[in-house]
Amino acid sequence: MNHRSANHRSANHRPIRTLKCSLSRRELCAGLAIAAAAASTGGLSGCGNKAKKGPELSIRGMKVGLVLADANDKFNRALADHLKTQVGDQGMELLTEDGKNRASEQIRAVEELIQQQVNILIVQPVDGEKLKTALDAAPTGRTVIIALERPIPHANVTARVGFDQERSGQLAADYLRTVLKSGDTVGILAGSAQIDQSERLAAFKAHLKEKVPGVTVAGEETAASEGEATAALDRLLRSNSSLDAVFALTDKLAVQASKSLRDKGSKRPIVLGYGGSDASIKELALPGSPLALIVTVQPQRVARASIRLALRAVTNKKVARNRFMPPFPVTKENYGSWPDYYGDLPRDAPVPWKTDLILEARSVD
């Protein structure tokens, strides 16, 4: 996601900058001291359990393994870059593997990193259900395992760090509260089945029903890929010709739906999306585009939270089972303040409309 200005440059050509939200020097020194003391008496631990005794360790020189779902994805590349910065700031080494969007490849990558005796293993699951056996091979009590974004059921995972899908769905519904009226209808454009999409959609529907009386979901269509978005939108509009809004559960679908409507000269229905890619922000900024809101997420936040949480686990401190980062609402009025995938995070991210929603990081056990 790019900060929109006259001198805009692609994020791919922008050097990584140290984030304002990274650990302070004081926190780092304290963490190193605690880690050295904890390691000499107990080694690593996860989930609040005591670790078995082992050789003395320190944070500096530890190995962190990262297994991405798909390294070709721009968001994931930015996430890896920020993790590399965070890990390097702690004097640790990052080993990165690409799951290539295949569960079998991700299992191989997890097994390889375990063989390399990583101290911290961060996994962004392609299919969490298939990772348990591979992760069970990690030395019990000696490997901190962090699940990124999606859960890894039944595995001995220290914690899950991801985006707040409940708040994201609520935020999209709350925006419609400000622009729709009783009797208006909404359509849903979904991508391939993912648990994060399901969580987001469930929260959207619940909030819409509770807080936006009289506005209903009239229909849903699924696009298995970005290329099928236009056809899925056409099916949705044929069944519900008077739709007032479409909530696309990914930004790729939102962009394609918005382009399709623009090509037809239509500004209605308005489109809402989730993600925040360069393409979605560019579409949002276009005069006359039906794209009205992107519920954006920031790899900077997840990278920072993952390493902070892992360091707590390494030093035998209790960690929450789930740590969720808040979304950032981007509209036509505030897209210029979006920090993109590489920019400095704002200290405050106010919702650009009056709302009771509180957008803060949440810990859930």
What would you note in describing this structure?
There is one protein chain. The chain has 365 residues and is α/β, with parallel strands linked by helices. 36% of the residues lie in helices and 18% in strands. A 7-stranded mixed beta sheet has the order 2-1-3-4-5-11-13, sandwiched between helices. The chain has a 6-stranded mixed beta sheet with strand order 7-6-8-9-10-12, sandwiched between helices. The radius of gyration is 21 Å and the shape is elongated. The model is unreliable at 1-56 (pLDDT under 50).
Outline of this structure?
The chain has 365 residues and is α/β, with parallel strands linked by helices.
Helix content: 25-40%
Q: SSE order, as H and E?
A: HEHEHEHEEHEHEHEHEHEHEEE
Distance between the termini: 31 Å
Name the poorly predicted regions: 1-56
Write the layout of secondary structure elements.
Layout: H1 25-42, E1 63-68, H2 74-89, E2 93-98, H3 103-115, E3 120-123, H4 132-135, E4 144-148, E5 159-163, H5 165-179, E6 185-190, H6 195-211, E7 216-222, H7 229-239, E8 245-248, H8 251-263, E9 270-275, H9 278-285, E10 291-296, H10 299-314, E11 322-325, E12 328-331, E13 362-364
Parallel strand pairs: 1-2, 1-3, 3-4, 4-5, 5-11, 6-7, 6-8, 8-9, 9-10
Antiparallel strand pairs: 10-12, 11-13
Tag the structure with descriptive keywords:
36% helix; 365 residues; six-stranded mixed sheet; disordered N terminus; elongated; seven-stranded mixed sheet; alpha/beta; 10 helices; 13 strands
